[in-house]
Amino acid sequence: MFQSFEVKSTPQFGKARVDALRAALAALNVDGFLVPRADEYQGEYVPASAERMSWLTGFTGSAGVVLVTQSQAIVFVDGRYVTQLKEQVDGTVFTGGDLVGEPPHLWLEHNGKKGFRLGIDPWLHTGAEVRKLEKALEGLGGALVFLDHNPLDRQWKDRPAAPLGRVKIQPLDHSGLLAKDKLTTMAAETAKAGADAVVLTDPSSIAWTFNIRGGDVPHTPHPLARAIVHSDGSAELFLDKRKAGIEEEAYLTQLSTLEAPSSFEDKIAALAATGKKIMIDPDHAPFALAERIRVSGGTVIEAIDPARLPRACKNAAELEGSARAHLQDGAAMVEFLAWLDQTQPGTISEIAAVEKLEDCRAAVGQRMQNPLKDISFDTISGAGEHAAIMHYRVTTDSDLTIADGTMFLIDSGAQYINGTTDITRTVAIGTVPEEQRRFFTLVLKGMIAISVARFPKGSRGVDLDPLARIALWKAGADFAHGTGHGVGSYLSVHEGPQRISRASMQELLPGMILSNEPGYYRPGAFGIRIENLVHVFAATEIEGGDLPMLGFETLTFCPIDRRLVVAALLTDEELSWLNAYHQETQEKLLPLISDEAAQIWLKAATAPLSR
Asked: Does residue 536 share a domain with residue 504?
């Protein structure tokens, strides 16, 4: 199994750990300290050695930050994690904060006392974050204090060792471009920006640029490494050699000079000391890096990571690989859903469902000679009221039997060498109440609206987000997460800068892969989410139109539960889309399924729906 079901939350230690941290803060003469989820590489998924927020609070979500003062300990999370936070932390120690509406810098602005001194570990915060904090504290007559050590790390006596995941070469037929050509392009972009060198700090950018994949963080093939790419095309890669075999080391030394990670700061300082102009991404590089460049005599040029957009705009090989990976994954999903539908309601648990789905993915991968490398995140397997917890993680303590008369939500994904998948299906277990079917159909209408959207060049995620919500809004409902996130090519299942959300200002460009996943959640009762992955393409010309238009092409093929659809609520266009989608799903997946019972199930699950 790629997933563990052990209870990882440790709320019982929260009080003692916060008390110890407060004592350390008093000795450092600061009034508060921030503990972010992010690590030194600013990753969403972090190794065990960087799970600081979880160690302190017991909260295991993938986004958040903790503000500890002498009188309060606030865990800021977004809408996905409000319910989970209440279940995982000691409520007598921690209170919840709004990461979106009132993040730490705004909370300080509104609630901080005069002269407040906030301590941070400058390696765990970006330059953009630091500027917001400094502005808030300036208004209080306070100060942001950059600590020379992390006081939490000194309290964490049993902290795991840093990871040493092995690095593998991503073949050209999957990457689509040679690493040396990517480096040449990156060097040209660096020179164009007026810089002598660019520092790559995002592990996704390292993996994409050098055509390597790693194993340092859970479920995401990231190598934790940094690189300096010079405007003349030369590069240094700061990677622990213990992560590379003979073949990988020989490959990487043809592209760059391999350096020990411990030498990174000194190399940056030496480069800056020659007066060089060094480019960094202020939204992703740690503040400590920019400060080291400045104090060493260099000039910081702030610009977007030059690998970020090329990585997001998949080339032909990456799109083709993703399409194949999704068909393979769709076949595994069909075998799983057929099995689930044929079991007696009330006889299997949330954990059993996760285990079966992974078995199906492994078996189909072996049959198709494209092995399952990993899952792309811990599977969300929620029955009944658990489905209302948007990022629910089933454990041996929380495991529920999937009961008759309820809806079951399973959000999962896989890592294959040719693509990363992410799919959610909500299915009926027996006969479910009519109200739940109505909300399922409203969510489906939003998913279809994104699927069929045509939009002008220059449109951003924020422009399209309302399309997924309008049917729910008309019913007086909404969902507290974005409609879609970017997805990598055998990389992170959450990739930027592309998103479909209220906050996404990034232009949508051809080749970008995004999720399309509206939902609805009623705490304590039920939850619904339907998710396909799509990619942006240049749509065919619209007759009579006068603007270049883009559209989405669907990558995910798997039946949507017809039993939950109230056909009368669908327009003719929506019903036509659903039937066409199911017809295409059957045509694409039927040849990939070897089990006769699953073939029969697929034909029934994709039969035309009528009013």
From this structure: yes
Q: What is the rounded distance in angstroms from the CA atom of residue 283 to the CA atom of residue 306?
A: 13
**pTM above the 0.90 mark?**
yes
- The rounded distance, in Å, linking the Cα atoms of 388 and 101 is 21
3-class DSSP assignment, residue 582: helix
Domain housing 50? 11-155
End-to-end CA distance of the chain: 43
Does residue 460 sit in the same domain as residue 362? yes
**Both 178 and 115 in a single domain?**
no
Burial class (CB in 10 A: 0-12, 13-18, 19+), 115: exposed
Query: How is residue 163 annotated by DSSP?
Result: P
Q: Residue 52 — very low, low, confident or very high, per pLDDT cuts 50/70/90? A: very high
Helix (H, G, I), strand (E, B) or coil at 290: helix
Do 382 and 394 contact (CB within 8 A), yes or no?
yes
- From the number of C-beta atoms within 10 Å of its C-beta (0-12, 13-18, 19+), residue 15 rates as middle
CB 472, CB 478: distance < 8 Å: yes
What is the Cα–Cα distance from 402 to 363, expressed in whole angstroms?
Answer: 24
Give the integer Cα–Cα distance in Å for 202 and 444. 35
Q: What is the 3-state secondary structure (H, E, C) of 370-395?
A: CCCCEECCCCEEEEHHHHHCCCCCCC
Give pLDDT tens digits for 549-585: 999 999 999 999 999 999 999 999 999 999 999 999 9
- According to DSSP, residue 494 is labeled S
Rounded CA-CA distance 281/547 in Å is 33
Q: 580: Cβ–Cβ under 8 A, 6 or more apart, which residues?
A: none
Q: Quick check: 348 and 403 in contact, CB under 8 A?
A: no
Tokens of 541: 């010309």
Distance CA 302, CA 130 (A): 14
Report angle CA 602, 604, 606 to the nearest 5 degrees.
70
